[in-house]
Amino acid sequence: MSGRLGRTLRVLIWVMPIALLVIFVLGREFLGGSAGWASVLAFAFSPAVLVALYLPVVVATFDRRARDAGSLRRAFTWTTIGWYACAVGVIVSIPDGGDSGDRLSPLMTWTGISDSASEVIAVCMLGALAVALAASLVAATAGVVASRRIGQGPTARSEQP
């Protein structure tokens, strides 16, 4: 990674999970959708969701050997960008329901698609989000494991007490 892009991504991996939850809870109104029970549930479950979103970041960032070896940067960066994109897709496509009936998602407002079509898109995006988040965790873990293997040839192992 180049220096400027690397710094930007290091900041984004800490800011984006919170920003995505804030956008889901409050920002749907600004995007043309409406807030209902999905926003209330997102707010209620936000601590658990934040733990899931920050787990790969913590694994990737706080392991000094992996960070110094640079063994996880590219794969972790692309999988993280992938789940950010999927999360934005979920935010704009998930239809919301309220006590007064169905509420429009931003995607329904923008394109005029039906509630069921928006729901299918949201379910597909949620599946892709789960896969991308798991891939991000696998990439972070693989980078840590790879950093442990760097420099541990037969001579390095025999020198350890």
UniProtKB/TrEMBL annotation:
Keyword Transmembrane helix in record: yes
Membrane spanning stretches: 12-31, 37-63, 75-94, 120-147
Keywords: Membrane, Transmembrane, Transmembrane helix
This protein's name: Uncharacterized protein
Gene source species: Gordonia paraffinivorans NBRC 108238
